[in-house]
Amino acid sequence: MNKNMEKLLIQCITEHKENVYRLAYSYVKNAEDALDIVQDAIQKAFTSASGLKSESTMKSWFYRIVINTSLDFLRKHKRVRPVDDVTLELHGPIVEDVYQNVDLEQAMEELPTAYRTVIVLRYFEDLKIEEMAEVLNENVNTVKTRLYQALNKLRVKMKDDSPQEVR
């Protein structure tokens, strides 16, 4: 890898470190595992950077590496699902009421991976449709359709779980 490409890769990783951490965390729901995934993704990026054709696609290329590394991690650890401290506290003795949008989290968890990924990339990582298409290596229209379907499924799940008034 030439020095210019190495500098650009370091700059890309530095600029997007919080975003890729959040992306990894959205898959594994554990801080330590998310850090491991990001570290593995950085290592994979440096070892395969020579195959990168264009500097303009570096961000989407790196996001794709993070997503693939997250999915690989989930496949390897399918049987064991670690619980982070925040989740553990939610299920432990409660001192005070803290509201979180548990319904949204649960509905997101029930979505298939492809749908959850487009929602996370669009609304949590604030990527444009074209950037999402690059990251996912999909056609723009496919990404639009998948996002539309994901939002509809999420809307249905959220509507079905809403509390009903008792009369």
TrEMBL record:
Residue ranges annotated for the RNA polymerase sigma-70 region domain, each copy included? 13-79
Q: Does this entry carry the keyword Transport?
A: no
Q: Does the keyword Hydrolase apply?
A: no
Q: Name one GO biological process term.
A: DNA-templated transcription initiation
* Species the sequence originates in: Paenibacillus ginsengarvi
Keywords of the record, alphabetical order, are: Sigma factor, Transcription, Transcription regulation
Q: Which Gene3D superfamilies match?
A: 1.10.1740.10, Winged helix-like DNA-binding domain superfamily/Winged helix DNA-binding domain
The GO terms this record gives for MF are: DNA binding; sigma factor activity
The record's comment on protein family reads: Belongs to the sigma-70 factor family. ECF subfamily.
The record's section on InterPro entries has:
RNA_pol_sigma-70-like, RNA_pol_sigma-70_dom, RNA_pol_sigma70_r2, RNA_pol_sigma70_r4_t2, RNA_pol_sigma_r2, RNA_pol_sigma_r3/r4-like, WH-like_DNA-bd_sf
State the NCBIfam families in the record: sigma70-ECF
Superkingdom of the source species: Bacteria
Which named protein is this?
RNA polymerase sigma factor
Q: Which residues form the RNA polymerase sigma factor 70 region 4 type domain?
A: 103-154
